[in-house]
Sequence to fold (324 residues):
Amino acid sequence: GPVCASAGYFRASLGHALVVESTAMARRAAVESAPIHAGGTWGNLFYWALAAGDRAIAEESVREVKSRAAGSTNRFGAFAHMSDSMLQVIDGNIDAATASMRAMDEAMRSIELPESANYHTSTRLMIRRELGELADLGYIADVAETLGHPAGTARPIAAFIRVHQGNLDAASAALDLVRGEQFSDDAGYPLVVSLWSEVARATNDLEMCQVLADEISLTSGLHYATGGIYFGAADRVRALLHDALGEPDLADDLFALAVSQHEAIRSPTWVARTELDWAESLFARGRDDDALLHAERARTAIGSLELPESQRRLDNLSVRSSNS
Fold:
């Protein structure tokens, strides 16, 4: 039958080894599913595969869902477009990702999917991040700041946008609201822990950095994805937190793990981002030569891809190096 792909099941209660094993079992279930269940089972498998870092199964799941949606406008088609957009961003093909997002929007409108606004927001957030345009999404933050529980998915989106607008006071105030809260073990978990971790680091909230580092400690080896957005390897997020907490050796180990995991899933987008994170950390520690090495690795990952945000960060590092 259908595989439950709620991203909450990818957290500490399973860990990497069990997620990998469960992904293989889920694929067997998808292959053996009755036709009535096959589309949903393959669609849910996509998130298991991303969590496990299994690019081959993720691609297979998208192909299978597309084949079941061919020639008609239905839920499967809409989600196939969304999954394709996520893979295109992983690959650094932002124009293709945007085209898939627009096709997803049209398909979801045509079938009047109730949750279409959620998927549109998460997919747009993913693409705008790579374009360096998150600061332009203030209108989304204005609404998200009023929605749901502070530990839900809307508030961290708003706070993350505020960080990119340079409004660290607003981001810090939002983070205060989740202090002492429990994070729900549901499909929104990857978004919640990823974005709050980035906000905690950006605002230098060491108490929340420690809380979040403890929260996600058992997700090492996993990748975070939910809705229409992929957040990269959990170990990258852990590296950022432990770097902020003044644990450079552990941070370096985690950065290295995250780079290898992003290479394994074949994502130049996230290899570049992680190398840039690492280079910025090394510069801050006075290790300029090592920082330049990782900056060059980011440059290699970007290559001829149009990744404006990563290119901006790389350019900033080059200026910083020339002035040091």
Observations:
- The mean pLDDT is 90.
- The longest helix spans residues 15-32.
